[in-house]
Amino acid sequence: MSSNNTQNNTIAGALTYPTRSQDEVLPNQPRQPRNLQGLLRFAMEATKAEDAPGNSELGPIDDERRKFLEDALKSLTVNIAEVLLNAIKILTNTERIRSIQFGEPLPEDVQAAFDNVLEYIDDIDTANDFYKMGGFAMFPICYGSENEKVRALASTVLAELCQNNPFCQEKFLEYGLLNVLLTLVQSEQGEALVKCLYALSCGCREYSPACRSLVSRGGCGALGAALAQDEPSARTKAAFLIRYLASQYSDAKEQFIQHNVVRTIAEQLRGGRDATSEHLLNLLCTLLEDLDPRVLDQCRDPTLHLKETLEQHLGHPELESFTEEKEYCEEILRKVFVGHKPVEIVVEEADR
């Protein structure tokens, strides 16, 4: 197509950079900007070709270029508070949220509301502002939805708000959201369960009051049960949080021992190697750190066949590329079984 046709096809009202003639060569054309910093870099790079050789001094900007930059700056400016308030209005509309039936795709405005919130709350100050705007009011409403996608996205929002953010973690505990998640983690499935565990982890880790509350409310049993879920990502997230709690809180470790998490780990490992195996083995190493006799006895339970499982695991050819996973296996075998004589199971013939 000719250059005239190309120019005529320009969308009316679209923001475009002042053009040059086709005959003028533009070496090293800078990338189009995506943010304010990129825009300023773009402007500087784009004007280098116009500078006289050896002259790097900035000169006056002409009216055409000034207008272009002003329009570009306006197009990059977003009123974040307004965006969040609009999203909160949608996500706290009880009637709207509860009208979304089980298994239905999310309406465009609800999906956009979640997307807009997640776009900005990774910044801690914005996350705190979200709370101050009344954003936490969305959680009782969204968690009350029968639609699993709504609940999963609510957990994603909660996780992003609380991650490495003591202010929102405090509100997480204050608003009773820990109790909500501990209830949901026992009933959710699939992606909703994965995101529920994600929110639980972000709400508790590095925030002692939430961790201690989780332990005192029986959360260790719920996490131990999550290790047996079919969803690999759920098992991975449960193992990650259990390992953190067991390594940081002795009362949590005590509960995991009482719930015999070792049995669950061994049963999962016996099912074959997968993406969760490394995390399960790492967790088992954590439980064995102080060589608690009860943990050793649980590992040596002959009905678990843990020794055979670990030896088979070490025989996987691909394990050579997973150094840490291999080391976990070897460490467990060394601590639990080297020098230990296995107990023979004698099955007596029943009396005739």
Automatic annotation (TrEMBL):
One of its GO terms (cellular component) is endoplasmic reticulum. Pfam families: Fes1. Residues 36-129 form the Nucleotide exchange factor Fes1 domain. GO terms for molecular function: adenyl-nucleotide exchange factor activity. Coiled coil: none annotated. Keywords: Repeat. The keyword Plastid does not apply. Residues 1-32 are annotated as: Disordered. Residues 1-11 have a biased composition (Polar residues). It comes from the Eukaryota. The keyword Repeat applies. This is Hsp70-binding protein 1. The lineage of its organism: Eukaryota, Metazoa, Ecdysozoa, Arthropoda, Hexapoda.
